[in-house]
Request: fold
Amino acid sequence: MTRARPTRPSAGCRRGEQGGFASLLLVGLCAVLVLATVVVGVLGGVLEASRRAAAAADLAALAAAQAVQQHQDACAAASTVAMAHDVRLVRCVVAGEVVSVATGADVAPVLGLSAWDEVVRAARAGP
Reply:
């Protein structure tokens, strides 16, 4: 009978030398990727709310300025436009024929996380 020669591990790959390091590295990398995804989602929600509030503020200010020109309630017109854009009118100031408004939009949470509750943007319009 021929005896099999025992195999010797090579010098660079001794048994037990790795100790699961690759697994820990992979778990850490996955955690970093999940965290980055959540952060991008939260910031995307804030950006979307900011754009929505800014657009609604611009349109509400224009509607209010037109209402002033027609001798109607400017803040009521601004509020109507703000509600149509799913934001709330935070401030409405009429100074002569110039109207300043501010609108607030709620920030949608991502996985229950949100950096802000509300984003407020302002606009002004007049002749």
About this structure: The longest strand covers residues 98-106. DSSP finds two helices and three strands in the chain. The first helix runs from residue 21 to 69.
